[in-house]
Every structure is written in structure tokens, then in C-alpha cells.
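Sanity check

After download, print the first record. It should look like this:
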Amino acid sequence: MKHFYIITNDPKDKNMEITNRIQQFIESHNKKCSIYEKEQEVIDSYTNPEKIPSDVDCILVLGGDGTLLQAARDTLELDVPLLGVNLGTLGYLAEVDISNLENALENLVNDEFEIEPRMMLRGDIRQLGKSASQTYALNDIVVSRYGSLQVIHFHIYVNGQFLKGYSADGIIVSTPTGSTGYNMSAGGPIVEPKAKLMVITPICPHTLNTRSIVLSPEDIVEIEIGQGKAGNIQEVEVNFDGNHSVKLSTGDRIKITKSEKETKIIKLNKVSFLEVLHKKMSES
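Expected C-alpha cells:
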């Protein structure tokens, strides 16, 4: 790798101290390093993919797991591997810690790393029977209530066949990477992140026998928003990786499939997923 690019979550590195430290280290090893300079008008994104040079080999993302998730969507079309530098609490994606920064960078500039492809989800929104938009997610796609505190009725279809009706606060469709996020908090299973599958987990289901459902990556999941009590219109919000959101109402659908695109995550250390999981569980 010859050209590195840094995306920084500004509030977590206010004086750009860590960013500049990384740039100086990389350039001292005769490599090129560029820093994204945020435009004033950009308020909901950490980068503009159009500003990333075409010869960039690696993108370093400074912040936390949330910053890396957004960067994964922003740079999806570039097919450039990402390395997360953790400036917050211990995460699952942003593996490089400040206390070990120079050692990690040494491995990076010497090409001593592995690249893990991570499965992503694609969500296709249909409103009034017509295709409206599509968005990608590395962690999860969450359909949850919007507005008043009411139970939402969902109809779940898999490969065109009706699977189950849920009465719940929401539905999570997660990738293996996202299984340790909202899915885990809602009682869903933890999945090895390199696996290829989808997990459907209800949020606060209003029944005692509801469990998560694990599906193959080839399956097609459709979630239809049902009617409320007395045939009332229900309103929900679809969130992609907890950020980009779309509002839906009764009769609307979202089709969720395995994305044809993947996120490439750079792994520098030999710490296994199970070791990270053990550390996280020990802290809780």
C-alpha cells in the first residue's frame, strides 16, 4: 500500500492531534497520506467519496464503530479496505487502540495484515406499490415505531412466502457483523462476523414464544407494515446502521437481501473475535 486516506470523527479528535500523528508516521515511512477536510455544509456525513483520490489503497477511519459503519456506506462504491482506529470505548470494528497506535501503523505500512470481507445488506423500499429507494447497511436494518408509543404489526415474508406476523416495537435484520449490536441487545444470537447469514430479531415482542430466526444469505426477506387497531394507519421508521432513516406506513414494504457489495476490514492483530467477545463480556 502506498497511498493512505484518513477520515476523522472531528468531535473525537477536536484538535486533529491523533490525525496529524498518524499522517506524520505514515509519511515518515515514505508513504503518501491524505486527510479529508470536511466541508461546512456537510452535517450528516464524515466524508465525501468524490473527494477521495482514485489511487487510495487504504482508508483509516478515526472514531468508533459508528464512524466506521458510516464510512463503509459512504465509500461502498470505491472498494477500498478500511481500518478502524478507536477513539472511544472498546468496539468490535475499530480494533486499533491509541495505546498501541504506532505498533499497529508499523504493521500497516509494512503490509503485515489480513483483509476480512464482511457481508452487507441491501434494503429496497416500496411505497404505494412502487420502488422508492435503496440503501446499504453493514450492521443492520431496523424497522421500528415512529411517533406514539404503540405496538406495531409486521408481516414477514421469506422468498415470497408468508413466514410470520409480529406484534412488537420493531424488527431487526442483522448481518453477522451487526449481531453484536442492537441484535444482541434485543436478545438475538451472537454470530462470528465472517459468517454469511441474516438474523431476524423482534424488538420487545408482545408474545412469550418469539425467537430470532436465522436465514441463509440467499434468502429474500420482506417486511410489510400492517394495520393498527381498528384498521388505523401505522407509521414506522427504517434505520440503516442506526443512521440513514426512511419513514414507512401501513401497506409499505422493505425488501432486504444480501448486498452484492462487501466491506473490506483490515485486521492487524491476531486477537480472535472470541477473545474480543470475552473481553467485552468481562467488562459488562
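If your output differs, re-run the checksum step. Summary of this record's structure: The mean pLDDT is 90.
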